[in-house]
């Protein structure tokens, strides 16, 4: 049994009737959550889990699923959290890579405190060595080849992070925190697990209603939510309700660029809240924080400054450290970071030592940042978001930012498509809230972008853009779909 702060804290809180989780109209006390988690642990032992050997948790977010993860901890098995929408082939690949003995889910959502309707399938993977480091949680993140990378989170790293998050955002006994992200996202380390460690109350957003702005607003208002951490999509949906959420005192945007039009509404929508931009990677957890003071800016929010204990390096293409103002790849070392991937070759490529004369292990983020004269970091995009169109270096995220400034654009992704004449050309997938056409969008781009950076094709839709299992816009799917459509018309 991994005796982490999380388990000790939830068990300690279980002596009272304070609410731990609100889920679909039901309140779960800490006592009920702990009782259900203990029941899960007993069931896991009965189906043959092996202490130290991981299990794959493939469950839609719910109070029962939270109890399932806690039950894995009580039973002493690392929980590999994956998207409930992950395809069958990807699930089997992860089973093989992680050595998971079982695939677990929740068949029947229990009443508070009752037994989980557990779904458990033995994988037949031979019992071998325990997962190194006895990680309490194991996350996955997308890789450049499409195969997920496995990230075991260290026990010490998780405990340090939950302490930092609770202290920084004032999460304590009874604090009500909204959880928007799926259970397999690293964002839950703050809005679920840090909250439970601190004795707060987590309001779970039903995944099936995550794009229902009215429902989100009702949750925030009904439960008097105090802390909201979410991707920009959630914040945009809340802002569109034109309500004042006076109970909210901390708003944390993370995971993507927040549209400036949404940011401008915050003083009215969240009149009593401090607003922060939080940056980090699954591998390192949160690393930089920027507290917003200018709500009228049209520029993307800065990444910010390193949080306590974080070291940040900016390297030029030759690997030389840039001191002072400059632009280059960001490397970070945090108190919360994983020890590496499960794959040692991937670890060696990204978790590096001996960087520019610094001691310790640094993670190569692949993000290109700009440090200004005041030491503030700004994200210019990922190295793989820079392409050459007709010989001109073009930042795809800059093009996205310009399109995102159009008042009728709700969501956008720009991809580079192979082209025999130009080498690469740009294609934009755009979700809109009106009947705007591609001609108007091209004219909008022409005001701010060089000719080579204006997309040559647009796919305009009113439905959401496709997303990966980790909730990010699936640019590979957009590219494939567009290329297949072009072939069909040839």
Give an account of the 3D structure:
The chain is an alpha/beta fold and 490 residues long. It is globular. A 9-stranded mixed β-sheet has the order 2-1-10-9-11-12-13-14-15, with helices on both faces. It has a 6-stranded mixed β-sheet with strand order 6-5-3-4-7-8, with helices on both faces. Strands 16, 17, 18, 19 and 20 form a 5-stranded antiparallel β-sheet that branches. 29% of the residues lie in helices and 29% in strands.
How is the secondary structure organized here?
Blueprint: H1 5-13, E1 19-23, E2 26-29, H2 30-47, E3 55-57, H3 63-75, E4 79-81, H4 88-98, E5 102-108, E6 117-122, E7 137-141, E8 149-153, H5 155-168, E9 176-179, H6 188-198, E10 201-204, H7 213-222, E11 227-230, H8 232-239, E12 250-254, H9 260-263, H10 266-269, E13 274-281, E14 285-291, E15 305-306, E16 311-315, E17 326-333, H11 344-350, E18 351-355, E19 358-371, E20 377-382, E21 386-389, E22 392-395, H12 396-404, E23 409-419, E24 423-432, H13 438-446, E25 457-461, H14 475-488
Parallel strand pairs: 1-10, 3-4, 3-5, 4-7, 9-10, 9-11, 11-12, 12-13, 24-25
Antiparallel strand pairs: 1-2, 5-6, 7-8, 13-14, 14-15, 16-17, 17-19, 18-19, 19-20, 21-22, 23-24
Helix pairs in contact: 1-6, 2-3, 5-6
Domain AMP-binding enzyme C-terminal: 398-472
Keywords: Phosphopantetheine, Phosphoprotein
InterPro entries: AMP-bd_C, AMP-bd_C_sf, AMP-binding_CS, AMP-dep_synth/lig_dom, ANL_N_sf
């Amino acid at each position: 049994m991994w005796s982490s702060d999380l388990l000790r804290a939830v068990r300690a809180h279980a002596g009272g009737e304070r609410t731990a989780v609100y889920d679909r109209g039901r309140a779960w006390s800490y006592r009920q959550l702990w009782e259900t988690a203990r029941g899960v642990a007993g069931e896991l032992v009965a189906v043959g889990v092996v202490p130290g050997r991981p299990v794959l948790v493939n469950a839609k977010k719910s109070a029962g699923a939270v109890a399932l993860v806690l039950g894995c901890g009580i039973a002493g098995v690392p929980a590999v959290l994956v998207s409930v929408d992950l395809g069958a082939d990807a699930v089997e690949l992860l089973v093989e890579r992680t050595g998971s003995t079982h695939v677990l889910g929740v068949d029947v959502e229990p009443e508070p405190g009752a037994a989980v309707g557990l779904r458990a399938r033995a994988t037949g993977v031979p019992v071998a060595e325990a997962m190194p480091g006895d990680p309490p949680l194991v996350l996955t993140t997308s890789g450049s080849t499409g195969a997920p990378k496995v990230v075991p989170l260290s026990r010490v790293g998780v405990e340090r992070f939950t302490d930092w998050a609770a202290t920084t955002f004032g999460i304590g006994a009874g604090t009500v925190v909204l959880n928007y992200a799926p259970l397999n996202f690293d964002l839950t380390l703050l809005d679920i697990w840090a909250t439970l460690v601190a004795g707060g109350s987590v309001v779970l957003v039903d995944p099936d209603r995550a794009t229902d702005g009215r429902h989100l607003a009702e949750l925030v208002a009904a439960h008097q939510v105090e802390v909201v951490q979410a991707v920009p999509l959630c914040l945009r949906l809340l802002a569109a309700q034109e309500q004042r959420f006076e109970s909210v005192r901390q708003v944390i945007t993370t995971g993507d660029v927040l549209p400036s039009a949404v940011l401008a509404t915050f003083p009215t929508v969240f009149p009593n809240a401090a607003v922060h931009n939080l940056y980090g990677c699954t591998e390192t957890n949160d690393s930089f924080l920027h507290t917003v003071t200018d709500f009228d800016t049209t520029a993307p929010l800065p990444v910010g400054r390193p949080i306590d204990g974080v070291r940040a390096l900016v390297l030029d293409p030759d690997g030389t450290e840039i001191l002072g103002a400059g632009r280059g790849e960001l490397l970070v070392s945090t108190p919360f970071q994983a020890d590496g991937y499960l794959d040692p070759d991937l670890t060696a490529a990204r978790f590096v030592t001996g960087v520019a004369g610094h001691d310790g292990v640094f993670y190569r983020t692949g993000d290109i940042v700009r440090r200004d004269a005041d030491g503030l970091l700004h994200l210019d995009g990922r190295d793989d978001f820079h392409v050459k169109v007709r010989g001109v270096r073009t930042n795809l995220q800059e093009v996205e930012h310009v399109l995102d400034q159009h008042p009728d654009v709700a969501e956008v992704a720009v991809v580079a498509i192979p082209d025999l004449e130009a080498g690469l050309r740009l294609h934009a997938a755009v979700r809109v809230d009106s009947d705007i056409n591609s001609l108007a969008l091209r004219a909008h781009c022409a005001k701010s972008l060089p000719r080579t950076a204006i997309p040559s094709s647009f796919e305009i839709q009113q439905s959401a853009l496709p997303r990966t299992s980790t909730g990010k816009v699936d640019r590979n799917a957009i590219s494939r779909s567009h290329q297949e459509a072009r072939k069909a018309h040839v």
